Amino acid sequence: MGFPEDDVISAMDRCGPNASIPELADSIYAAQTAKAAGIEDSEALRLSSSESSYDDEFETEPSDYYSILPPSPENQNWGKRPFHEKKRKWDELSHGKKKRTKQPNSIERKKWVEKPIGTHKKEWEWTGEPNWIGSNWNNASVLRRAGVTEPKMLGFGIPSMPDIVTSRFIPETAMGPPYFYFENVAISKKGTWETFSRFLYDIEPEFVDSKYFSVARRKRGYIHNLPIEKRSPLLPIPPLTIQEALPFTKEWWPSWDTRTKLNCILGCTGSAQLTERIRKALVSCNGEPSFETQKYVMEQCKKWNLVWVGLNKVAPLEPDEIEPILGFPKYHTRGGGSSRTERLRALGNSFQVDTVAYHLSVLKPLFPSGLTVFSLFTGIGGAEVALYRLGIPFKAVVSVEISEVSRTIFRNWWAQTNQKGVLLEIEDVKQLTNDKLQHLVSSFGGFDLVIGGSPCNNLSGCNRVTRDGLEGKHSSLFFDYFRILDVIKCIMAKRSKYSSHN
DNA sequence: GTGAAGATGAAGGCTGAA
DNA sequence: TTCAGCCTTCATCTTCAC
């Protein structure tokens, strides 16, 4: 995360051996902020590591001050005070004033629960208040109380229902420049998204299932400070059912396979041995398969996203078929020495372009002459493809991606599409020290958009071995996303202040 | 030695009934 | 409101073929 070793050791001393990475990061951040504000380390140490000292100051606040939903076993985390508030306290101390985000009172929270979700915007429109519509915090019982029979991950709106949420509150500290956009898996270890939100300036996440944008499900959360009004989808609207997206399967699709959507496209695929087992099981039935056989085949087909390519013959999707489903041009990942396995892995880790483009579409009228983009964890360039398909030109892209395969794919796309802007490639986020970031901001004149989805390896439900949450080896890189974004914001704010004085 | 294929559950959310 | 059963999931590790 780029913290000096001494600061880390001090934080470990303060927080104890069992402290989580977020706790340590907060403690380091608080100490650094205090130091910058000229406050004695001893006081910083006391306030950053002592929950009681914080509570004393806000003792008049209700215990569920930060709760969005009513107290329940499902939302207990929201009764806890965010780490980010501790960090903010040091901002307040250094500036001599408090900055508090207005939170809904008990009557407003009750109103949220009682109003039907997804009926009409005016019925549950909030003026500057958090709104967790479509989030994975919406447990089934809360939704049923609210009159929702089928939980949906609609975010702040989808092309067919654009007015689900028409306004939302963005804390002053979160406002740009630059705009930023963060993405990760929606369903992960408990508390993960609370941490994401806490670090990313307490912005309300937007949870969207890409099944509304494509044939495949893809439940993802997004935190950004972009406007949410007047979004527009990419055209043409991609096919939304399996048989529209993969018409060659129609001929062989059995009536008892009722799927119309694909499940999430992952980084690995079903094996040839599995499809052969399925074929033999079906052939042995001599006609209509038994209920048990149907059940077995359906389980495997759903698990591995298998489609019908012949009589009794199922097969996994090939990279060339996945690319358009995810919104990439066909053969986007082909060539450049990448194997089928590498292509599948790269695609499984990428954005769903149509979904992201819908959110980014608001940038087009704001930046008619083009964008300067800081792209973290670029992968195969999902964000850049989305912006390109929206018709937004690039002034420059600083791309950070550790995978050589992904870098090659992205570089080839950049050349193939005759991009006129500057492309600067950086391999590792760890290389981005404060000095380096200062240099980049100066060189490019600041950035309009900081975008990226940090690795989800340790968050994904697919991971059976190292599902360690945000403390995992890969997923802890989220803190680098935050670090880099925060440094860029600070540098740009200073530049803006300096230029306005002159 | 290298890369591809195959085998490996559990966590968290959803659903429906009591 | 609770709970049991069901469904889904940006992966990792070992084995095997070359």
Automatic annotation (TrEMBL):
Compartment annotation: Nucleus
Keyword Nucleotidyltransferase (UniProt): no
Alphabetically ordered keywords of this record: DNA-binding, Methyltransferase, Nucleus, Repeat, S-adenosyl-L-methionine, Transferase
InterPro entries the record matches: C5-Methyltransferase (IPR050390), C5_DNA_meth_AS (IPR018117), C5_MeTfrase (IPR001525), SAM-dependent_MTases_sf (IPR029063), SAM_MeTfrase_DRM (IPR030380)
Keyword Transferase: yes
Gene3D superfamilies: Vaccinia Virus protein VP39
Enzyme class: transferase
Active site positions: 456
Biased composition (Acidic residues): 53-62
Record region (Disordered): 39-110
Enzyme Commission number(s) from the entry: 2.1.1.37
Superkingdom to which the source organism belongs: Eukaryota
One GO CC annotation: nucleus
One term of GO molecular function: DNA binding
Family of the protein in this entry: Belongs to the class I-like SAM-binding methyltransferase superfamily. C5-methyltransferase family.
Protein name: DNA (cytosine-5-)-methyltransferase
